[in-house]
Amino acid sequence: MNPTNNRFVLDWISDMAAMTKPDNIVWIDGSEEQAQGLREQALSTGEIIKLNQEKLPGCYLHRTVHNDVARVEGRTFICTSTKEGAGNINNWMDPVECKEKLTRLYTGSMKGRTMYVIPYSMSIVGSPFAKYGIELTDSIYVVLNMEIMTRVGYDVLDALGDSADFIKGLHSKADLDESNRYIIHFPEENTIWSINSNYGGNVLLGKKCFALRIASFLGRKEGWMAEHMLILGVTYPNGEKKYVTAAFPSACGKTNLAMLIPPEVYQKQGYKVECVGDDIAWLRVGEDGRLWAVNPENGFFGVAPGTNEKSNPNALHTCMKDTIFTNVCLNTDTNTVWWEGLDKNPPEHAINWKGEPWDYRKYDKADKVNTSGAHPNSRFTAKAVNCPCLSPAYYDPQGVPVDAVIFGGRRARTAPLVYQSTSWQNGAFVGSIMASETTAAAAGAVGVVRRDPMAMRPFVGYNMGDYWAHWLTMGTKIPHPPKIFHVNWFRTDAEGNFIWPGFGDNMRVVLWILARCAGTVDADITPIGYIPKAEDICIDGLDGVTLDTVKDLLTVDTAAWLEDVENIKAFYAQVGDHVPQAMYDELAALEARLKAAK
Ligand code: GTP
Ligand code: SPV
Ligand code: MN
To answer: Which atom of ligand 1 lies closest to the CA of 305?
Structure first.
């Protein structure tokens, strides 16, 4: 018996099954009982490993194949009917040709396997923000992860009813052939096809594929925004609550900021910080004329390395139960997990992310991938409900009103600790010129500066120029827009050490940002925007950070910025003729101000 009579759903499943030819089809009902059965099955084949259930209840370890450890941007395509629809920043294939090509790869790819049908919702089922998807997959790992990351169950089918309004996701591991790995989006058909991978962002189709690429496309059509943003709540000692969203590129600190623990100086005064989301925000204009945000996800797919009791205790506690670890190091004495930066005691007896015996003494910083215990992009999939600082607002179907939008990236020099844009248009421009050093979250070189507008370079489901235009249009539709800022936690000294302490201490900057929104603190105007007066960034209780350190972190190096302007011009040219004129006007004005300041 099928749990729905929806013809659109059933016909599509039969078509996909006719192509992939699974031995059988199993509907995922979201029950713990069914999940337990699947875990048993995955344990029996070695697809997952049971960890120490006393220390890590409900936790499992999964290892991917060695060449399948991150998103593959080079093999990710936006297949709109015209190339122009996808723009120059995305990879594009003609949708008809693409389907022919992939049909060949999918044909019989599920033979001897089960096709699981996962009905899921992004955001709260039945809420005004909710959008529904169905993912078909031959991977139990995907089923178990989707059950953590999204809201899975038959209530989704009930909410969908007879409607055709759902995102059709097809995933097959096939034979994990790297040269035939494809992550394909057909935004005009609400369809996602993923094949030959079994890693996170490539295969948990509710996340980047739906909630960012397809959703950004829908958002443009329907007048809302899907962004690569965390959502953070700050409660003041007087009980007042403020919310900020922040867009940082992959592995640049969203999870850490979203779960920060306030420095003691603020705790004593009664400040509290709560997490609403750590990776994706859907934003709409509310009836009150403000911008409102929800986190459409139900869990965290967080970076493991660097997570520790000091940097992010909330994340650490979140992943102490009901978690699937991917590509971390296994301590074979205790049957627990370890990763670089967890503590200073790497396990004596361990198996690395590749499944080989591992000797921590052979660790070489210059060759992390081959000498680390955990892969640099190893991750935990953990439930939002298990996060100690989860905001009650996470459960509010309306979401939260946003006071500030923060952009940021990893820049060793150019970007100061924080600056404020001068208007929504100027803020959108600041987003468009974002740049960051690349990280292990995507396949390819690490540490290379590249432009990553709004932290969405890999996630915009249409033409980047049109996406910028959509940002500008949204500005005209929000009567009380949030103010827009830019931060950089990653400035380094001559030896390459981070100057700013970061992590929980980033709250010091967030409070300056909120004070600017409230109009309670002054600032200095510079060619790039407003900069704090150094004494307005609270450094009470910070070791080794003086007023001079803050001054240094806030300097605007005009020559470096003028160099950046040239790079931005080249990038705008690459984005092509859809770049809005307003962005060129902003760029010209920035250049003129910098030249005048020289
Ligand atoms: P995705 O899940 O890939 O989108 O990444 P994310 O933006 O959530 O990144 P995350 O918070 O997991 O941070 C990734 C890495 O940046 C980790 O290794 C952190 O330890 C490091 N990091 C985060 N915040 C800071 C900070 O304030 N200062 C410094 N120096 N490092 C940080
Ligand atoms: C990112 O790369 O931005 C992530 C991890 O959040 S993944 O889901 O793999 O894309
Ligand atoms: Mn992300």
So the answer is: 18
